[in-house]
Design brief:
The complex is a heterodimer. By secondary structure, chain A is of the alpha+beta class. Chain A is built from 6 helices and 12 strands. Chain A has one domain (56-271). Chain A starts with a helix and ends with a helix. Chain B is of the alpha+beta class. Chain B has helices at residues 4-11, 61-68, 107-114, 124-133, and strands spanning 12-18, 23-28, 32-38, 45-51, 78-80, 86-93, 146-148, 171-177, 181-187, 203-209. In chain B, the strands form 2 sheets. A 6-stranded antiparallel sheet of chain B has the order 1-10-3-8-6-5. The two termini of chain B are 21 Å apart. The chains are: A alpha+beta, B alpha+beta.
């Protein structure tokens, strides 16, 4: 074996050894088992903690500032719907929601109670502190004018892409600032060969999710049918959004301790002063 | 008289080896084909596309998987923009399956995945930032990308992990541009997971007419 080949082989061996070490370190930290879904109607909000309540009509969007420690509850009080979410750090909007990092670093696209949503800077933007549904879509994204035109008769109908353009512009941002979204109450399932399907039973009236802000945020929500929703008519229901002061996280806070990846994400938040 | 081989050479407008761990970009005009070759095998190639005359229009992983109803990129995949328009079409693929849901590695996400000790290692998002800056773009413009030659099976329970690459030396993918696009590549420097076989290697990029 030449010296060059020997050097290359030892480099590969060294890199593989380091990976095994990292993997072992990750596994030594036993991930806490995530709990089941929150009971529908079983987690009432303290009236004194409620800061604002908004009903987003079907097809519309809404933006809000959300301070660290505040949360939003998305509730399907009026029947099924899907809500697309994007978010930016209020102090530096170049830091924004990153769905790819969110699913990659947590080793799963199944977002549910106990999981967190990451920015592109390795920091936690949201904690999913309650979630009755557990059927949310990070992979497929949103409707646009063309996808609606192909799906529904009698348009044009409002779509999430244009809603997010409007939400970004009204927040002082531009088209190029709109990150890929995460859709709540969107029961997309991934089958063999990566084919997508829609499990209509995966969400129902009364479902809700509570997202606690882990840094000061600008949040945009769009209430349009998910592009894989097979319902033949364009008929999104209104969605209730409640902004409230979340209970302060305690030492063994589920979302902050459930996985070693979340722990390290929160360490990055702390290092940035969030 | 021009023989066939000479004609083929005349059609090549770019033929470049991209060193291991390096960034690269090129204009691909509508009608041209870009070929990315994994010269030594098992090398992830993180790739983004921007519309050349309106760079706020760019690759959208979500629109691409929505348009085809499936998660993986392969022959026939229509590469879509954030405005829902067709940017390129995958016309050939000797590998069979490429990821577009796991994004690019970064120093910051590496700390979360692999521990804080990996913060000061070169990463794809560093390559992307340096390369898009040449076109007046910034971190705001870096979006989730295609990972050619990277294997990320999505399980039915949502589980998702980067596993050993499936590409062999010489495997390639070809895309025909349907509009003028800037193609931005990070020849992935990741050494903390199996996507590059723990040993980043050079790739070859060719652009030809037709």
């Amino acid at each position: 074996m030449s010296d060059a080949m020997s050097d290359e082989a030892s480099l590969i061996a060294e890199n593989r050894r380091r990976y095994e070490e990292l993997k072992q370190a990750g596994q030594r930290y036993a991930p806490r088992a995530l709990p089941g879904p929150s009971p529908r109607g079983g987690v009432p909000l303290d009236a004194a903690a409620i800061l604002h309540r908004e009903t987003i009509p079907g097809g519309w969007y809404w933006t809000t500032a959300l301070k660290r420690g505040e949360a939003i509850r998305l509730s399907l009080d009026h029947g099924p719907s899907s809500v697309a979410l994007v978010a930016w750090s209020a102090s530096d909007p170049s830091e924004r929601l990153n769905y790819a990092d969110t699913v990659k670093v947590q080793w799963t696209a199944a977002l549910r109670k106990g999981r967190v949503l990451f920015s592109d800077m390795g920091r936690v933007m949201f904690s999913m502190i309650e979630d009755s549904c557990g059927a949310h879509d990070a992979l497929v994204g949103s409707s646009n004018a063309a996808s609606n035109a192909a799906r529904y008769a009698g348009g044009p109908h409002r779509n999430t892409r244009d809603n997010l353009v409007l939400a970004a512009l009204k927040s002082g941002l531009e088209r190029r600032d709109i990150p890929a979204c995460i859709s709540f109450f969107a029961p997309v399932v991934v089958g063999p060969e990566g084919r997508f399907a829609w499990n209509a039973a995966g969400r129902m009236a009364g479902d809700f999710v509570d997202l606690r802000a882990e840094m000061d945020l600008i949040v945009a929500l769009s209430n349009c049918p998910h592009p894989l929703d097979p319902a033949p008519d364009y008929a999104p229901n209104p969605v209730t959004v409640t902004r409230f002061r979340a209970p302060p996280p305690v030492g063994d806070d589920l979302c902050r301790t459930a996985t070693i990846e979340a722990v390290r994400g929160f360490e990055n938040n702390a290092a940035a002063g969030f | 008289m021009t023989d066939t081989v000479t004609t083929l050479f005349d059609q090549v407008v770019l033929d470049q080896v991209v060193p291991a761990q390096a960034p690269f970009s090129t204009l691909v005009r509508a009608g041209q084909t870009i070929r990315i070759e994994d010269s030594q095998g098992c090398q992830a190639v993180d790739t983004l596309f921007y519309r050349a005359d309106d760079r706020a229009e760019r690759y959208s992983s979500q629109d691409t998987v929505r348009a085809q109803g499936a998660a993986y990129v392969t022959t026939g995949t229509r590469v879509m923009s954030n405005e829902g328009r067709l940017m390129l079409t995958v016309t050939a693929d000797s590998c069979g399956r490429h990821d577009t849901s796991a994004g690019a590695c970064s120093c910051e996400s590496n700390t979360v995945r692999f521990g804080h000790a990996t913060k000061y290692l070169h990463a794809c998002r560093e390559n992307f930032a340096l390369e898009v800056a040449k076109y007046g773009l910034s971190k705001r413009d870096i979006v989730p990308n295609i990972n050619f030659f990277m294997n990320v099976p999505i399980e039915q329970d949502g589980g998702l992990a980067i596993v050993d690459g499936v590409s062999s030396p010489g495997d390639y993918v070809e895309l025909r541009a349907e509009m003028d696009v800037i193609c931005v590549i990070s020849n992935c420097p990741q050494i903390n997971n199996p996507c590059n076989g723990f040993n980043p290697t050079p790739i070859r990029v060719t652009v030809r007419e037709g």
